[in-house]
Amino acid sequence: MSLPTTARVVRLAAQPDGLPTPEDFTVAEEPLPAPGPGQVLVRNRAFLAFPGLRTLIGGGGVGLPVPHITPGDALFGPALGEVLAAPDGGPLRAGDLVTHLSGWRDQLVADAGRFTPVPADFPDPVALLSIASAGYGGLTRTAGLRPGDVVLVTGAAGAVGSMTGQIARLLGAARVIGTTRSPAKAERLTAELGYDAVLVPGGRPFAEQLAEAAPEGVDVVLDLVGGEQLTAAVDAARRGARIAVVGALAGQLDPATPGGHAPAVIDSFRVCTLGLSLRGFTGTDHPDLEAEWRERLGGWLRAGELTFPWTSVAGIDRAPHALAMLFTGDTFGATVVEL
């Protein structure tokens, strides 16, 4: 088989003025080098579009574990690919499926150590694109969910939240409440994904909706939004409640900011008198988490106890549109570009 000599790559063309649009990106065909010693050639099958790219593109945030993306840079993120060529005697061989962080291109050459093999018996390889390990880690590492807890997940219809409600239930939560911007998505979350109630901010005051859904308060909060939803979550917390702050969608969805902050008013008196804990979660603090998550994800998928909801966008030419769809609310679950 002759190896490909070019790759199509999505790059940032211009700094967006507000939320990203497809016109802010280019999809270009570029030379692809032949694999060198210890290198592997991979053809991507799919990659993930995720809201964190807004922060990286907008230049927001400080202390991030990955670099900002400036005009001319290629985008990156979780991807699933197939090995086309690998060195003899190495850990990979042609035909293997792998995951890696060099999405937003159709093919790449890189050192073998940058790729993680997919077990041959893994039930649904595309589910490995899920970033719900953040939800799992927030519940198990930061919030310490206990059987019988009442759990609130803000931003429940996205890539993390659509699985976190299910995970909370599997870990023993007695009641799981979510939030989303769309009434139609709220119906899907309760009908398909195990949420007991899903609130739609807007119209009626959000704090009032939350008080009705959890009249005795909440024990665990997995916050993906920040802003007024985090404010209301603190106000609804029971004594000893644990709040894991995993995302900041309120800032990433705000066209007036660079996507790097989501201010919230926190009642510090309540935090003190009720012994609440509020802590940010980041996967880099838990190097053992990813392997544990993969094992539990595979087991839950095999048993039919967990669903990976995702919206498919076909073709790399549509990848910039996939990113824009995250901010217009036109997706449900993870947003996956299929090649």
Task: Describe the protein.
- Residues 20-337 form the Enoyl reductase (ER) domain.
- InterPro entries: ADH-like_C (IPR013149), ADH_N_2 (IPR041694), ER (IPR020843), GroES-like_sf (IPR011032), NAD(P)-bd_dom_sf (IPR036291), Zn-ADH-like_protein (IPR051397).
- It is a single chain.
- It contains 10 helices and 15 strands.
- By secondary structure, the chain is an alpha/beta fold.
- The chain folds into 2 domains: 6-130 and 308-338, Quinone Oxidoreductase, Chain A, domain 1 (Alpha-Beta Complex), CATH 3.90.180.10; 133-284, Rossmann fold.
- Strand 9 (175-179), helix 4 (183-192) and strand 10 form a beta-alpha-beta unit.
- The longest helix has 14 residues, at 289-302.
- The model has no long low-confidence stretch (mean pLDDT 96).
What is the total domain count? 2
- Average pLDDT works out at 96
Largest sheet: 7 strands, mixed
* Name of the CATH superfamily of the largest domain: Medium-chain alcohol dehydrogenases, catalytic domain
Quaternary state reads: single chain
CATH architecture of the largest domain: Alpha-Beta Complex
Give the termini separation.
20 Å
One letter per element, helices H and strands E, the order comes to EEEHEEEEHEHEHEHEHEHHEHEHE
Radius of gyration: 21 Å
CATH fold-level assignment of the largest domain: Quinone Oxidoreductase, Chain A, domain 1
Task: Say how many strands there are.
Answer: 15
Please bin the fraction of helical residues.
25-40%
- Summed up, the helix count is 10
- Point out poorly predicted stretches: none
**Looking at the structure, what is the overall shape?**
globular
The amount of beta strand, in percent, is 15-25%
Structural class: alpha/beta
Instruction: Name the CATH class of the largest domain.
Output: Alpha Beta
Protein name: NADP-dependent oxidoreductase
Domain Enoyl reductase (ER): 20-337
Pfam families: ADH_N_2 (PF16884), ADH_zinc_N (PF00107)
GO molecular function, one term: oxidoreductase activity
